[in-house]
Amino acid sequence: MNFSEKNNDVELNEGDKPSRKKPMYPVNEKLRHYLKNHGREVKLSVSYNDLLNFTWSTPIKDKNGNNTLWEKTSYDSRDWNFIREGLVKIYAALKTEGDYSFLSHFDVARVDYCTFGNSNPFRIRIVNKFNDNYDHYYIKIADASRIYGLELEHILSPNRIIFFTSDNTLVEEHIPGIPGDMFVSQFLNAPDMNKIRIAKEFVKFNERCFVRLLGDMRSYNFVIDITPDIEDYQYRIRCIDFDQQSYEGRKNLYFPQFFKENFPFVQLCLSHLNNESIAQYQFEERTMITFRLVSSRYRIKELLDIMKDDEISTPEKMQQLIEELNNYHNTNHFSRCKSIGDIVKTNLKQTLRKNLLLVQKNLGKNSD
User: Fold this and answer.
1) For 323-346, what is the mean pLDDT?
2) Per-residue DSSP letter, 169
3) What is the pLDDT of residue 365?
4) How many domains does the structure of the chain reveal?
5) Which has more confidence, 231 or 172?
6) Are residues 268 and 209 in the same domain?
7) Cβ neighbours of 358 (radius 10 Å)
8) Are residues 270 and 184 in the same domain?
9) Around Cβ 260, how many Cβ atoms within 10 Å?
10) Is 196 domain-assigned?
11) 345 CB neighbour count, 10 Å cutoff
12) Using an 8 Å Cβ cutoff, are 90 and 42 in contact?
């Protein structure tokens, strides 16, 4: 994708907006079996439905008094002890593989509920009683398309993802970083920000999203992780919302560069990178995805085989995506696709074709 081409601003046309109320898709038996085999399905002490039994909630404001879209919940005292104990055990499952010897160190400081978006998550704040250090995790409805998104992120991206499922409940670790919209407004123009490196990372992030067809990556759906490095900083953009995994029909919704919320990042790319550098970074990212794909080829095949038999979008959106990807790749290979899983598999083959040939060639040399 050329960053110098006109930004089509996918938000302008009402019919082209990402689906705010995407339906939740149930976890089928094959996907459940996959999750069990790979240690993702565990028995949890508290379910999503248990957390819905709060008695009241109060809006949470930020330090400037603005609405955060989160609400602090309160529970009946008869339910709270059960919920509190269960939430601490879930945190232990996330952090210590279920070793409960440290349970006495932790307590639940707060349970927040968000009514915005598709997943209506609960955010759990866990506090260490000895030093007041706190951490978060999230409990959501187990949506199949989101689970596919989390698994593809874990396998194909540079980031490892910890999550568990239990029946209709999904538990996700907190992904640390500065929310993209906050980064733009408060940090992007700071004098110590390395804008060239930020632009480079946005190009790579843009590529990662399209290769595996993760949509709706507007600035509030990803975070910026900043790591001090020798004499400077490194930046990593990490997805935090996986609801729109391969759901939408319009191709451009899978490119973060086309969202108006991300225009400051696009401007950085156009100001600090030439076309040759952009092409280089795109090829570098596709190569790294290819290495991960090859090293996890059996797991990704198993996942995509399950995904191709699953229904996680509408026939109309699927047909639109087939047509647009055929046009984009100048091929008719997508016309053979019968499901979203087929489309993701074909897009991986089309975007990584050159890189796969190079990697396989080099692996063949090394085996001689």
Assistant:
1) 97
2) E
3) 58
4) 2
5) 172
6) yes
7) 13
8) yes
9) 14
10) yes
11) 19
12) no
